Amino acid sequence: MTVARTAESVQAVVKAYDVRGIVGEQIDADFVRDTGASFARLMRAEGADRIVVGYDMRDSSPTLAAAFAEGVRAQGLDVVNIGLASTDQLYFASGRLGCPGAMFTASHNPARYNGIKLCRAHALPVGQDTGLATIAAELVDGVPAYDGTPGSSSAENLLEAYAEFLRDLVDVSAVRPLKIAVDAGNGMGGYTVPAVLGPVEALTIAPLFFELDGSFPNHEANPLDPKNLVDLQRFVRESGADIGLAFDGDADRCFVVDERGEPVSPSAITALVAERELAKEPGATVIHNLITSQAVPKLVTELGGTPVRTRVGHSFIKQQMAATGAIFGGEHSAHYYFRDFWGADSGMLAALHVLAALGEKDRPMSELASTYNTFAASGEINSTVADAQERAAAVLAAFESRAVEVDRLDGLTVRLADDAWFNLRASNTEPLLRLNVEARAPQEVDALVTEILGIVRN
């Protein structure tokens, strides 16, 4: 049964940064075949002659990827199939081959979902304003046929080249022996971790849920949700590991747990990697989004670098990476971006930096992380509201007299005395208002959260 298409149904699937929906209800083979054709038209107009395609371990991924490839070839472009891949492996392929790419994944979403992450040559992003709106329009109106010769198809296995490339960027060959507990969440980390970390003699991998299974039988492959870290935390303690790593479904994000089983904030990882990258290139620019801990820009400034603050979202980070020539960028969601990786994000590359930092000195991960955890934070707290703008305005009215600074780069950010601040952002897709609070002490954070939620949820 072909999925019916209206402007509204297409808009629900073609999102700000990617294409994502429920298989059989919102997307199917016909839908992605036309998406492939439209993307190929767009890329052909920009001079591309081939597109690289990869897919994750979801049951629907091979079929959908094959349909997408049909659409690409029908528009006269060749297809390079790399088969099973993590999203950052697809970005590597796009960079190494110098061609646009399409990755079939729904990242951390449940098994019934699938989608496509698209990029231009050298892993440059494709968003609403840079191609997705055009694709969405053609999915509704119809993709014009191509009257030239169809493209061809070839296959290439780039896993080992990807692994060697990352190890060349971060040398972990001389680190002290480390036992690493890794929770792949039945996602693509179970495929890429052995290839990247396995050859390093000093590293002993203790695997958890490495079996590729798009039904996610153990837990959701979304380490941003604390409940999905519980298995790794217990495994780290029971196995006596020096560190724990958790990857999301398409393995482009990496979360860290210390030797006690305690989560290490992505802001601390951002600061750690920023310090290493600035040691390599003093004075360089480092990108951070506006709800990353202020410890990050403070550290970057102290080290002589230039911190640049952006909106939340990978397209904004990647745009700023390109515009500023930044050496590195980090987000609170554990996306980490590297100039040496075509400005794209790679959780595996961030993990290598952490392992190198941990393995270079004889101290535990908890002690290393404490160097960068200089503030207390609430984490992201969601509230269901009928009118996000009205609730945010009510919060601003209550805090305006105490505010040191107010800005609206992304939602509402209010800075208070003694380095405290909070941000309220409305979700783009749900009736939610997202709150993040940071202050010097946990009790200050708790007090602010209580006061702000008392207004938001009134």
From TrEMBL:
Concerning SUPFAM superfamilies, the annotation shows: Phosphoglucomutase, C-terminal domain, Phosphoglucomutase, first 3 domains
Q: Does the keyword Metal-binding apply?
A: yes
Q: Which UniProt keywords apply?
A: Isomerase, Magnesium, Metal-binding, Phosphoprotein
What Pfam families would the database entry show? PGM_PMM_I, PGM_PMM_II, PGM_PMM_III, PGM_PMM_IV
What molecular function terms (GO) are annotated for this protein?
A: intramolecular phosphotransferase activity; metal ion binding
Cofactors (names):
Mg(2+)
* GO biological process, any: carbohydrate metabolic process
**Residue span(s) of domain Alpha-D-phosphohexomutase C-terminal:** 380-453
Task: Write down the CDD domains for this protein, in alphabetical order.
Answer: PMM_PGM
Domain named Alpha-D-phosphohexomutase alpha/beta/alpha: residues: 14-135, 161-261, 267-373
Q: Which NCBIfam families match?
A: PRK09542.1
Family named by the database record: Belongs to the phosphohexose mutase family.
Q: What is this protein called?
A: Phosphomannomutase/phosphoglucomutase
